[in-house]
Amino acid sequence: MRAVWQRVSEAEVIVNGDVVGSIGNGALVLLGVTVSDTDRDVRYIADKCANLRVFPDDSGKMNLSLRDIGGSILLVSQFTLYGDCRRGRRPSFTDAAPPEQARGLYLQVAESIRQMGITVETGVFQADMEVHLVNQGPVTLLLDSSKQF
């Protein structure tokens, strides 16, 4: 499982002209699921998303987590995070999980984060979405449950 985690002051997802998910201070998380992902990957990514210490404390040091600041997460499914561009000019998506598997694990990540007391808004799985955000910092981090990076 891969995630692009972005610290934001606000973010929203629009589908067919309607806002379907919106947050203030927190994180926009783009989530990709691969064919080999399991509950272990869900737990790893959910824990990282909720507990990364990248929000400034009183002295301006990145030392606080979403839980510490009462922030929210906007979780958006993005299968293209498993696009393999090493050969040719067209990405291969063979490592991306099929929609049925990916949807279930994506929803598990959202629920796992909610169980930690964090508000989670989502996009619409498999929809053509517009994602708007104001990145703070900017702070953008890459997460990989198989720890490839």
Question: What is the element layout, followed by pairings?
Answer:
Elements (H helix, E strand, L loop, with lengths): L1 E14 L2 E6 L2 E7 L6 H13 L3 E2 L5 E3 L1 H4 L2 E6 L21 H16 L5 E3 L7 E15 L5
Parallel strand pairs: 3-6, 6-7
Antiparallel strand pairs: 1-2, 1-3, 1-8, 4-5
Helix pairs in contact: 1-3
Could you characterize the architecture of this molecule?
The protein is an alpha/beta fold. The protein has one domain: D-tyrosyl-tRNA(Tyr) deacylase (D-tyrosyl-trna(Tyr) Deacylase, Chain: A). 22% of the residues lie in helices and 38% in strands. Helix 1 crosses helix 3. The protein is globular.
Q: What is the ordering of alpha helices and beta strands? A: EEEHEEHEHEE
CATH architecture: 3-Layer(bba) Sandwich
What share of the residues lie within helices?
10-25%
CATH topology label: D-tyrosyl-trna(Tyr) Deacylase, Chain: A
| Total number of beta strands | 8
